[in-house]
Amino acid sequence: MQFTQEQVTKLAPDDASAKAGKALASNSKWVLRCVHEKALWGDCQGSGKNPYRTIIDLTNLAFKCSCPSRKFPCKHGLGLLFLYAANPNVFSVEKELPEHVGEWLGKRAERAESKPVQVEKAAPDEQAQQKRIEAREKKVRGGIEELRFWMKDVVRTGIMNVPQDPYQFNQNIIARMVDSQAAGLANQLRRINKINFYQEGWQKALIKQLSKTYLITEAYENIEALNTELQSDIKTLIGWNTPKEDVLNSTGIKDEWLILSISNEEEGNLRTEKIWLFGLGCQKFALILNFYAGAQLSGHAFVEGGTVKGELAFYPSTTPLRGLMKEPFEINGRFIQPGIRSSISTLLQDVTSKFSLNPFVSEIPFILSSGRIALNGKNWYIIGDDGSGLRLSNNEEQCWTILSISKGKMFPCFGIYENESYNILALWPSNRYYSIK
Amino acid sequence: MSLQNDIIKTALLGTDKIQFQLPEELSDIKDGITTKQEDKEDAFLKSAAIAFIYEESGQEAKDSINTIPECPDDTREELSASTSQHLEDALLSKDEVFFEYLLTKTLEADKTVSSKLVPLLLNRAIEQKRKAEKLIAVCGKTGEWLCSLNPNWQRLTLKNEEQIDWETGSLEDRKLFLARLRTTDPDKALQLLQAVFEQENANNRAEFLEILEIGISVKDEAFLLEALKDKSKKVKEVALKLLQPLLGTEINNLYINYFLDAVSIREERSLLILKKKVIEIDPAVLPSDDLFRYGIEKVSSVKGVDDQLFWLSQILSFIDPSALAERYQISQDEWFKLSIEHKQISVFIPYLAAAAIRFRNKPLAKNLLAHEEAFREELLLILSEYERYEWYDKYLESRFPIILGLLLNDHYSIIPQQLAERVVKRLAVNPYVITQPIYTRLALSLPVGIKSFLSKYIEEGADDYQKRYFSNQASNMLRYIELREGLTF
Does domain A344-435 have CATH number 2.40.50? Predict the structure, then answer.
């Protein structure tokens, strides 16, 4: 598997690691550099007496290093991979794996095969559990009641004065939702803070978000009347979690998944990583969400634009999207362009069908087989073959980058439909993958 | 749209002031809401939510969007993906030295950067005006095309004569216009300047006048003499600076004539049988007052040097040495030999060096460089890069910072192995004499053959802080040499 410098850079947990890794991508730093079809290994002379022993699993990208760094991958792992990406000829090709490499790869394979999906260690005390659920349910219902009062108050007096203090406007009620264990509703309310109150159109965005949140509470009050999947969607929107184990225990889809985009959003001390996937066989989209607190680093080595082979299990939903990758899986660095025929009108049809199943769906992933971007006044659009277009929600800087990459020509792209606009996250002009950050 | 407007109107003013009703086409939903209605706010919020979903579900793509014309194809090839990645890394990690190197090499190879980087480079061109031309050049057609579309980048487009308005343009634009015209048509440029000269302010007059140095000739004399009468001291100084060395002008003739009158070459006997030429200065020849009016200082400011010798030395810097040798009917080398043999040579040397630099006289520059006390960096610049190496060898130890500065030129020429080893050895002894970015810059000019030589310093035990520091720098330099090796242009 051959990597590009760009791919290796994206594997770095932070900029400092990428920089330090590049500094180590020099022959002189490595007293040993070897490659085998399954692994890459080398000894890097650090400041200590003994060199650091670094191993990279090429079959299922993973790193191991004897250095004390807590970063993953560490600068040695990155440095070795940078060196391999830039100059594979300096590595001696080995037919046999040395003992320490073979041992680590063997352990990894063994662990992957034998890793059972975590089952509950002991049967829970059902009565206590039921009590806890009831107590939470009571708290959530109390919170919802308060939220509905608050929203009614807002629309009774009018939203005209909200832009005067848009941040403070909803802080108390968000805190109240957190207290009442309705984190999902708190997230819905936080979306209000992302509205640009200095830009025309804030009125619609605000009332749309308020009314949608209200409708979620209404749906929760009548949840018994809904089908199981929609019940699950509503519960998730309120803040009830589906246990990871339940998802991993369900049957997933085995496929080769194209890693369309990896993006990060930070709020407070929490970083949310979004990994968008597309099943090359099943033609389904999936979203893996990872949450990291503080300086916690990503624990995977997915390569944007590459693929991952394995079974993916979805969280229950009328429009399944969020999922979990079951182990073992195989990461591949080769770029693949999805072969899909679609247009802006099929995107809008898809939006309609998704809404008909689940009116609360917010992010709709979509691959456009051909589009070009255009600027009308101050608004950017993606235009299809037929000349019709959809507004882009990418920021100004991103739009100029997309225009520069595509040179004003048609290109296939992947993006997310949300709030009547499309956000391009990746594109493949001239069969090359570019991610937009 | 009217449904949306009604919702927004109600939301803005509040349900206390205005009532909202769902339209008839949503009567089914409306009935459902009404039966379970808690109050008017409950009805409004539910109705609004449903109306928004209803509208979004049936939305159609917007048509009649103006398309952007496609970017014209570039005749130049794009950099390879890996080199492009190095350029992006250098740019984002603020590795200015390596970024500058990659930029220069891309231009030399007549290639363009990856189109993904173009917006980043254009933004940088806005921030760093001095580098703008180079940055725009590597952006190729994509850059030009984006500049024509983005108002922020439009000002980066290089202006040509037709686009610059000589009368209303900015000072920089007008200077650019005049300089370009002066290169192609010096007479026309002079006429243009003459026409507006008096209406310009003193600073502009001085700045425009300086541009006349491009393609200067006797034809400019009348205008420059007129400028000597200007009210502004700065303008007068510029005009005089241009006239003094200009061959065939009244001032330059005044200088030459006095020099020829006062200095003669006489043959004298040496050891009875040998004849030897010597410079003889006639103290009886006195200059006219005009000489001092035209920039020659009257009173000697050099201790032990009489006024006449001081005048002649000053004049020496304004006369082309080859023209002077011709007037005395001797060779340039001979003229230099006579000057150097003069008992007060130390007075002449700086002025001879100034003449060599001003008239870009290579033989004189080489003769002067042979004398340690005559060394000036500008003398080396007159020589070709190949010719300089001889002098780099000679002056490396005594003038290390200057020689290193010249070795690290804008063309990133590779330093010959032997000289490179001497540079590295010199730095190993005193590693703090240059900074980290200079080490990086040096690595980009070191020959690949030096790798094993550098490795010795890396492997060597670091027993003191200076050696440790140099070992790190050597390792860093080695990495850049390897990086350079892996680049494809």
Answer: yes
Best mutation target, B40, B62, B94, B472, to test chain A (most A CBs within 10 A): B62
pLDDT tens-digit map of A311-342: 999 999 999 999 999 988 888 777 788 888 88
Q: What is the mean pLDDT of residues B336-345?
A: 78
Q: Is A410 on the interface with B (CB under 8 A)?
A: no
Residue A53 φ/ψ region, left for φ over 0, alpha for ψ in the -120 to 50 degree band, beta for the rest? beta
- Chain B residue closest to A45 (CA)? B459
Q: Are A312 and A325 spatial neighbours (Cβ–Cβ below 8 Å)?
A: yes
Q: Is A2 on the interface with B (CB under 8 A)?
A: no
* Percent of chain A residues topping a pLDDT of 70: 95
- How close does chain A come to B402, measured CA to CA in Å? 30
Say if B70 falls within a structural domain. Answer: no
CB contact (8 A) between residue A407 and residue B53 = no
- At A427, the pLDDT band (50, 70, 90 cuts) reads very high
pLDDT at A205 > cutoff 70: yes
Total structural domains in chain B?
Answer: 5
Say which of A26, A157, A158 has its CB closest to residue B482: A26
Structural domain for B149, as ranges: 81-154
DSSP class per residue in A340-400? ----HHHHHHHHHHHHHH-TT---EEEEEEEEEEEEETTEEEEE-TTS-EEEB-S-HHHHH
Average pLDDT over residues B338-364: 84
A250 in contact with chain B, both atoms CB, cutoff 8 A: no
Tally Cβ neighbours within 10 Å of residue B415.
21
pLDDT tens string A8-26: 887 888 888 888 888 888 8
**Residue among A432, A436, A427 nearest A4 (CA):** A432
Closest chain B C-alpha to A126 CA, distance in angstroms:
36
Q: Which of B5, B12, B16, B472 to mutate to test the interface with A (most CBs of A within 10 A)?
A: B12
Same domain for B478 and B389, yes or no, is yes
How far separated are the first and last CA of chain B, in Å rounded? 56
Residues in chain B with CB shorter than 8 Å from the CB of A403 are 68, 146, 149
Task: Say if residues A167 and A193 touch (Cβ distance below 8 Å).
Answer: yes
Confidence (pLDDT) at A339: 81
Beta carbons of B68 and A374 less than 8 Å apart: yes
CATH number of A244-332: 2.40.50
B341 and B405 inside one domain: no
Strand bridging mode A330-332 / B274-281: unpaired
Q: CA B445 → CA A87, B94, B384, B421, B478, distances in Å?
A: 21, 20, 18, 12, 12
- Prediction ipTM score: 0.82
Cβ contact, residue pair A152, B45, below 8 Å: yes
Say yes or no: B82 contacts chain A, CB-CB below 8 A.
yes
Bridge-partner residues for A255, per DSSP?
A: A310
B286 shares its domain with B318: yes
Which of B5, B9, B116, B136 to mutate: most A Cβ within 10 Å? Answer: B116
List Cβ neighbours of A199 (8 Å cut-off, separation of 6 or more). none
pLDDT, mean of residues A210-228: 92
Is residue B249 in a domain?
A: no
Instruction: Read off the pTM.
Output: 0.81
Position A177 scores a pLDDT of 94
Q: What would the two tokens of residue B320 be?
A: 């082309």
